[in-house]
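Async update (no meeting this week)

Hi team, since we skipped the sync, here's where things stand on the single-chain job. The sequence we agreed to prioritize is pasted below, unchanged from the tracker. I ran it this morning and attached the output directly underneath so nobody has to dig for it. Comments welcome in thread, and please keep replies under the output.
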Amino acid sequence: MSLKTVANQPVVSTRGILKWAALLVALGEFIDGYDLLVMGAAMLFLKPAFHLSPSQAGLLSSSAFVGAAVGLFFFGPITDRLGRRTIFIVNLMFFVGFSILSAFITNTWELFLTRFFVGLAVGADIPASTAFLAEIAPAEKRGRFLGTLPNLLWVAGAITATILGISLLHTGNNAWRWMFATAAIPSFLVLVGRQALPESPRWLIRKGDVKGAEEACRKLGIPMPEVSHEANQQKTRFVDLFSPKYRRRSIVVSLVFGLNTLAGPITTLAVPYILKFGGLMSNRSSLLFSLAIYGVDILGLLTGFFLIEKLNRRTLAYLSGGCTGLLAIVMGIIGFKSGILLIVVYLLLAYSLWCGLAALVWVWGSELFPTHLRGAGQGLTNGVGRLGIVLTSFIVPMGIASLGVRITVVLFAIPLFILILLVATHPMFDTNGKTLESISD
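Output:
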């Protein structure tokens, strides 16, 4: 039976199953947002508890992001070989264990190692989850499934971590132990829910399991994808990302992702540190303002929910990145002259970033690569992005200590303008409404 014939067979199911499956997979980003952003709040307690220097604070803040980068690079190709479902279930088992373990450490090196392995589990989840979402989403809604939904849940995780940090302020310097341990609760619940999900139909077809793909499509409520027979013969090799056909794509998308994450943490992870150690707010005030920033991030994503399928994606990138870069300059030059002005500019900056670029890089990281390299492609591009966050984790503490908070903030505009230039010169970023197969070709 040809795959074209299979693709024309009716599917008996409901769209509700597809939405629940997408939600369960995207909830991995809630865990990512909670656990990785909890470090921003935990650092307010860890710095005095362990008498951390600026360099030690940067190293510890970056530990989970280093682990995530390693997990992305290593498990991206593995998810192409072993399957999306296998990886996004197994990785959560490790996440639960190391989250609990990180709450019982006694020195900074132990914490660095446990946080590294927590990040490793997060990194393993991302290529498997995003590949799955890309492969089950309708073409006309793929931006929402793959970009907006995971990021909404990621910010929701960040909000939860911040609220927890505020509620634990009165418990003293050991509050960070509770912050790390509680990450095991949502991850365990998601682990249980994911047991009911099928494997990605596109991945099954690539492995030659047409009947399994049919069953997965019926369960999800989606039509069989029209994938050529040649796809079955393609093997997963990470080095193919740098073959003549995909080299330019791999490098450019990785740069775009990395440049975005160089600037992005000033609206998430770095907010409490910028405000507290920039001499602007107390622990409680910086966490409360972080909560407001995350609320605006959600408003930006909800705006992007409608724009990402309506506007040309390159146009949305220009608007989002350009406005964010300009606002970073304004914030650095005049934003710190008054509390009200700082609040207004900071909120606008967060909104402009999250209504476009924050979601777009996730979409491009998966849909611009073929099925046999989709996990590896997301692993590479998102891994470079995590390295960008690692670099930012060092830049913020060291920059504030040596250059001051104003110059540090202005510097974050530079990568955004370079990103816009890259997107403007590469038509491949126009992916609205196209099938995955036509994009990868």
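Quick observations from my side:
The chain has one domain: 3-440.
The two ends are 24 Å apart (CA to CA).
Reply here if anything looks off.
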